[in-house]
Each structure stands twice: as C-alpha cells, then as structure tokens.
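Let us work through a complete example step by step.
Step 1: write down the sequence.
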Amino acid sequence: MQSAPISRRVHLLDELRGFSILCMILYHGVYNVLLFLPVTFDFFFSPFMGFLQHFFAGGFILISGAACRFSRNNLKRGALCFLFGMAMTLITVLFVPKLPIYFGILHCLGACMIFFWLLRPLLDRVSPLILLAVFLFLFLVTYSIPQGMIGPPGLYQEPLPDFLFQTEWLFPIGIKTDSFFSADYFPLLPWLFLFLAGSCLGIPIREGRFPAFFYRLHSKFLSWAGRHTLWIYLLHQPVLFLLLWLIASLFPFGK
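Step 2: predict the structure and record it as tokens.
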C-alpha cells in the first residue's frame, strides 16, 4: 500500500523533533557540568530523570520513524546517519575517553532507517494499524533487554540467560557485558520497534489525515531546529565543551 504524498509540510513533526533535540542538549549540558565541574545534583541521576531522558529520546525516535515516510532515499539517509555515528565514536574515544559513544542515537537512527528500507516492501503489505499495535507491543516486551530482562515492565518479566551477557559484540542489540559503557546508548532493542511504530503513524500523517494543527506552523525556531537536528546534534557537544572550558578558565576550581 503506497500513501499519496501531501503538498504541505507537517510543521508539528519538525517542531516536536526540534523540542526533543533541545531537551537532549539541556540534558547533555547538565550531565557535562556534573561530570567535569565540582557541582552535585543527585536528583539528576534518579530513576525519574532516567525515565525523562528515555521519554524525550523515545519521542524523537518515534517522530523520526514517521518522518521516514517522507524520505525519497532512506538507505542513503540511514547510511549517512550511521557514518556520522561512527565518526562520533572515533572522536569521543580519541578526545573524550571518559565519555565514549559506542552505539548512540545516531547509530540507532541510522540502523533503523536501513532496516526500514529493507523491510518496507513487507510492511506496506500489512495494515498500518495492526503493525502499530504489534510494534508497540514488541517495544514494551524488549524495553528491559539492556537491563537483562524480557517482558513488559511492571507486568511480567523474565531474566535473559547469563551467557548472553558474556559476549562483547551484542551491545548493538542491547545485550552488553557488565564492563560495557557508552555515554549515549540506544540499542536496536527496544528502539527499532518504536521507530517502526512511528513509520506506521507516518502513513496517515503523510496522507493528510491528521488534524489540521499538525500541518500549521506554530514556532519558526522549533521548526528550524527540527529540520536541522543532525547538525545540531553533531555540533552541540563541541559547543558545550567549549563553554565548560570557558567557565573553568574564568572560575578555576577543581573537584
């Protein structure tokens, strides 16, 4: 089933994506301050803040899945995004070894776009409503895999076999050893299923079947940020580190 393109831009998708990337920058900024400067804020590392981080990042991934229905070449976009993720890995390992990124959100989004490109001929044969329900269910079932559990949180969970977590190269799918650390970590399980759920929502959005306010412009700044999320993500950490360096230079103190 091929959806008919609409002639108007879906500004709300851009604005929500822009809002999500700004929240991500704020989170990373506070994280860097707490890591490199003598400032303490224990609540930042609480389970509630962890939930908020996943909530906003999950919204970004869901919207990216919907946006892939507007792309003419998801394979190219996915490969480029993944390559930028690998560049981020190299840069952090070489210059910020305390904060290496081995499978962050760029790796995840790039891989998700490629998987969507591969799976699209099959996905388009099934009702998007059915697929949406299936992918959301699979997202819940696999959500706790990085914590060694499988099953919907709060309902029923089983521990995964211990031998899986002794393998060092399964971290892209959420199975990692105790020694693994990535400052930004979004494995394919569970996030691939949320991205694919977003691709199901993208069909009626692209066909213009959502409410009119979805297509109206509400904030030029957020819309601009949403259209340039890749470059904002790539540049925000160097800018944040520069600001930290300036603060440390002007107000020299140590931990």
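Step 3: interpret the result. Residues 6 and 207 are 6 Å apart (CA to CA).
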